[in-house]
Design brief:
This protein has 177 residues and is an alpha/beta fold. The chain is built from three helices and six strands, in the order E-H-E-E-E-E-H-E-H. Helix content is 15%, strand content 22%.
């Protein structure tokens, strides 16, 4: 696979040039949070294109500073509209000249109405995790040993809880037998 780093100002021109080179299959577009980078912090916008004859792939990548608008590639690949909406919603990347044929512009795609935040950024906090204990594996430091430094003595056994079924799965009393 070929990886090309392009300046943010030449994003659309680079995608168009790759298409003219024969990379005519649009695969995906997304972002990678690099806001914690010591130098040149921002979001890496990445686009994966494929040439089918001969088979070859190219990954176009540009660094976009946080809060900077980048031009939309929907004029080059119409299929990029869904990906740009997702990237806008999950990472907060704004695309100028976005057009998906609906005339509604960038709008929510996956998250519920009223959702605040950008859940795929590293800085996003999962508040559900902070407000209630996860029922799965124990947290680091919560070993199965009894307190008081008795490392060889196992912790007292608790009564087993009834196993919960996955959400949406009815119990055995439901339906025909």
């Amino acid at each position: 696979m070929i990886t090309r780093d392009v300046p943010a100002g030449e994003w659309v021109e680079s995608v168009r040039a790759a298409r003219e080179e024969g990379f005519d299959f649009f695969d995906w577009l997304s972002a990678v949070d690099q806001l914690d980078a010591e130098e040149d912090a921002g979001l890496d916008l990445v686009c994966h294109l494929i040439r089918t004859d001969p088979w070859e792939r190219v990954l176009l990548r540009t660094r976009v500073p946080d809060g900077t608008r980048v031009d939309s590639v929907t004029g080059v690949f119409r299929g990029a509209a869904w990906h740009e909406r997702e990237t806008h919603e999950m990472f907060g990347v704004d695309f100028s000249d976005f057009e998906d044929g609906s005339g509604q512009g960038l709008r929510p795609l996956l998250l519920p109405d009223g959702f605040e935040g950008t859940p795929l950024r590293k800085s996003f906090h999962l508040t559900a995790r902070a407000s209630k204990v996860w029922p799965g594996a124990k947290e680091p430091g919560e070993g199965g040993r009894a307190p008081g430094g008795e490392a060889d003595k196992p912790a007292p056994r608790k009564r087993a809880r009834r196993r919960l079924l996955p959400p949406g799965v009815p119990d055995e009393s439901w339906g025909p037998r």
